Amino acid sequence: FFFLMIRRPPRSTQSRSSAASDVYKRQEYVLAIVHRLIRILPTYIVIVLVSWKVLQFLGSGPLWNMLVTSENSNCANRGWEDLLFFNNITGEDAANDCIGWGWYLACDMQLFLVMTLVSLFVMKHNLLGKAIIWALMIASLIYSYFLAYN
Questions:
Q1: Residue 68 CB neighbours (<10 A)
Q2: What are 79-119's pLDDT values in tens digits?
Q3: Alpha-carbon distance 32 to 36, whole Å?
């Protein structure tokens, strides 16, 4: 996906002058980030609030209170990390997360932001931008290796 995003600038910017095109590209990508936040964040806020305040009233059973109480305290203490999309890098244990699958949205948002900036750089400096992409991929592989085997 990221390589497809880098191959060609958006069609609407190809016929503009260079200075106007650069400004338009930046505005277009800022709008893409805002659009993504508007699309994801309201639903995510509702899910965090329901998990924090409403979930305790939706069930019962021998383990229900134990599970829901721990999730309630996790959302009260760390729910803001989920809503800012950096709950995957705080170094805490995954058992203390407000929402267990929230790490995926955080990773997805972080990758979207980084690759948006990289793609803007690639459009301005094609060869150097591709070198940065390769460097990021190699750094990711090395980091994953050390996480897995150390």
A1: 18
A2: 888 889 988 887 667 677 888 888 899 999 998 988 888 88
A3: 6
Listed residue (106, 92, 107, 93) closest to 48, CA to CA: 106
pLDDT at 94: 67
- Is residue 40 within 8 Å of residue 104, measured between CB atoms? no
pLDDT mean across residues, the chain:
81
CA 29 remoteness from chain centre: 15
Q: Are 40 and 24 in contact (CB under 8 A)?
A: no
CA 21-13-108 angle, to 5 degrees, is: 100
- Rounded alpha-carbon distances, angstroms, from residue 97 to 18, 94, 147: 46, 5, 20
Q: From CA 135, how far away is CA 8, in angstroms rounded? A: 21
User: What would the mean pLDDT of 8-26 be, rounded to a whole number?
Assistant: 59
The first and second tokens of residue 9, run together, are 């600038």
pTM beyond cutoff 0.85 = no
Pairwise CA distance, residues 56 & 68, whole Å: 6
